[in-house]
Amino acid sequence: MGEAGGKGVTLSEVRHEQNNPEVINDLAHSIGVTKELSFHDVYSLYDGDMLAMVPRPVFALLTTNPMTEAWRQERDAEDSDLEWYKGAGPAEPAIWFRQTIIHGCGLIGLLHCVSNGAPSELIVPGSELANFLSKAVPLGMDERARLLNETESMFQASEAVAQKGDTEPLKPDEDSIHHFVALVKGLDGSLWELEGSRKGPLNRGSLGKNEDALSERALELGIRRLVDIQRKAGGDLPFSCIALAPSV
Questions:
Q1: Helices (H) and strands (E) in the chain — how many of each?
Q2: Is 16 a catalytic residue?
Q3: Of 16, 105, 113, 241, which one is the catalytic site residue?
Q4: pLDDT 10s digits, 202-211
């Protein structure tokens, strides 16, 4: 999925990742996410037995959804009332990356999941991810995007694992129909919806101390809300979803 960069931001390109645990885990662990955490398939948003298969607590969900007309209209309406993100620094409740990388939505979705909440405190010291975040977190939106564009090691890691997938790589001028959306429980207890093609991080509401990112409340505030938008328009929302949780 290509997005236009901000003024002065040079566009880079990575191969479009699949939203499956094998590919995303390889990328996550190669850049410095602790092996104590892994992504797991979520097979249903409603079936209790299937939800119970996911290890807990769940720190984040990484979903892919097609850009339907109903979702586009809802996004445009919400974004029209918002200003562009102006936050920077470790005191921010959510670390957000604007997407200026061609086909980089999977990489950015992963960064959103592991740079926020409890996983951000479990990154391997001295790793590529730790070093990158130490530089990125203090920066504003455009400078942070520029840094990611210029961090060649991130692209190399992303490209290496993307080749293991089973989908054809997108051409530079070809747009993906799917958007990666991260739904993360922040250290402030809020559910944050993080997507690089929005205007900034979106606070979807507070979660209780014992409510994780796959709790009933988090599902209602997050991915089920997107499903309901499409159902009200008279259709279904095909999606895939993986959960960041303890390794098994």
A1: 9, 6
A2: no
A3: 105
A4: 999 999 999 9
